[in-house]
Specification:
- It is globular, with a radius of gyration of 21 Å.
- Helix content is about 85%, strand content about 0%.
- α1 crosses α10 and α6 runs antiparallel to α19.
- The relative contact order is 0.15.
- The longest helix is centred in the N-terminal third of the chain and has 53 residues.
- It has about 425 residues and is an all-alpha fold.
């Protein structure tokens, strides 16, 4: 009876802590990631007017959209280690304030090279934000709760499109203040929140549980002890240095998977408005139609993240959605110019391309700890996000060469097929096999 009572108290404490942490941290991080993603991908919607105004070719646009990830790559690992070893709160605030300025600057580019430069600097400024948040969540959530937390945080990706698509459409069509075009105001107005919330972040976020004055002392102590126990268990099972982590087979496989999947995702995200526009609908209609795939992606992401934590399984929860997105591109290629079929196909792509993320990002922290995990996450995200350069550029280049998007979508489908099969080749971690 005493053991049973202790278990009841422990379960109650677990629920209390998880609820309190989630209510305090996740909604705020959710808002931050919406702002980040809107500023990252709004160029896809601004292109509907920007390309014509500046005389950019499809190749120029594809290169400029993708060069963001070259800058992103350069500072990703150092930024992630700073979050682990210094202060997530201060580093995330710095990131947001600087990327806000560069996001606004995008509204004033006038040449190809200015376009390339500012997109590069925007990526440089934002480097470390996403993997830093993943590391930050590992400071607040135990392994068994992590995929759900990541799912709620990353649900900001499709939500950013639900908000950003119609918002960009309305700004582009209705806002022409001071003689500046609507596409310029898309960048200006959507860049300002990053600066505001960057300043708020300094005062709102807390780096570690033991510093959280918004938690009762017993909950702070319990969470700190649980995370320390998990850390010690991973150290006993497999003590790994930063350098060793970057050479691990699993890390190399994960960054390859992520590169291939990101290649397809950003090709899809940046070019979705243009592909829909070819069906003959207005710019505002394009932004409204774009909401549907991302709404379904949001629902799928939350469901898959919840089921992944419930079962403790990560590989299949990652591989199957990726393969579903591959099929979606295949259907899109076969849809021709039928708008209904194209939107349906892209709904399948969006469901798969969003729902694999929570279980995928729970994998590195299953077998690595502390700085090793931070460095691995930074490496996976930085190298993987180079796919964000390859995908948009490939679609732009092939569109200029062939006059259609189907060749580029075939390349993205092949990338996803390889990513899905490679995911299934990863050996399950002990945490997964023990569930």
């Amino acid at each position: 009876m005493a053991v049973s009572a202790a278990n009841t108290v422990q379960l109650s404490m677990s629920e209390r802590v998880r609820r309190r942490v989630s209510l305090h941290i996740i909604p705020y991080l959710f808002i931050l990631y919406i702002i980040a993603f809107v500023d990252r991908v709004n160029v896809g919607f601004a292109k509907l007017r920007m390309k014509e105004a500046l005389g950019f070719s499809e190749t120029v646009f594809g290169f400029g959209a993708g060069v963001f990830f070259i800058g992103y790559f350069l500072l990703e690992i150092p930024g992630t280690l700073i979050v682990e070893r210094w202060s997530a709160r201060k580093w995330i605030a710095r990131i947001m304030i600087t990327w806000g300025f560069f996001a606004i600057w995008m509204g004033f580019v006038s040449t190809e090279w200015e376009f390339y430069l500012v997109r590069f600097l925007l990526g440089l400024a934002e480097a470390g934000f996403f993997p830093g948040i993943i590391v930050y969540l590992s400071h607040w959530y135990r392994y068994e709760d992590r995929a759900k937390a990541i799912a709620f945080f990353m649900s900001a990706i499709p939500v950013s499109q639900l908000i950003g698509a119609p918002l960009s459409g309305v700004i582009m069509e209705r806002v022409n203040w001071y003689g500046w075009a609507g596409w310029q105001w898309v960048f200006i107005l959507e860049g300002i929140p990053a600066i505001i919330f960057g300043i708020i972040t300094i005062f709102y976020l807390t780096d570690r549980p033991h510093q959280a004055q918004w938690m009762p002392e017993d909950e702070r102590n319990w969470l700190s002890e649980e995370l320390e126990r998990e850390r010690q268990e991973k150290k006993k099972a497999r003590p790994v240095s930063v350098w060793q982590a970057l050479h691990q087979r699993e890390v190399v496989m994960l960054l390859t998977i992520y590169f291939l999947a990101v290649n397809a995702y950003y090709g899809f995200t940046f070019w979705l408005p243009s592909i829909l526009k070819e069906s003959g609908v207005s710019n505002l209609t394009v932004t409204l139609i774009s909401i549907v795939p991302f709404l379904l992606g949001l629902i799928a992401m939350l469901l898959v993240g919840w089921d992944s934590d419930k079962t403790g399984e990560r590989r299949w929860h990652t591989a199957l959605p990726i393969l579903a997105a591959c099929l979606g591109f295949g259907f899109a290629i076969a849809s021709g110019d039928n708008l209904t079929l194209i939107v349906t196909s892209f709904c399948i792509v969006s469901i798969g391309a969003h729902s694999y993320l929570p279980s995928f990002w729970a994998m590195p922290t299953a077998f690595l700890t502390e700085s090793a995990a931070a460095a691995a996450i930074g490496l996976i995200n930085s190298v993987g996000n180079l796919g964000g350069f390859a995908g948009p550029f490939a679609l732009g280049y092939l569109k200029d060469k062939t006059g259609r998007h189907s060749a580029g979508m075939a390349v993205l489908a092949i990338s996803l097929l390889c990513a899905g099969l490679l995911t299934l080749a990863i050996k399950p971690s002990k945490k997964q096999t023990n569930h």
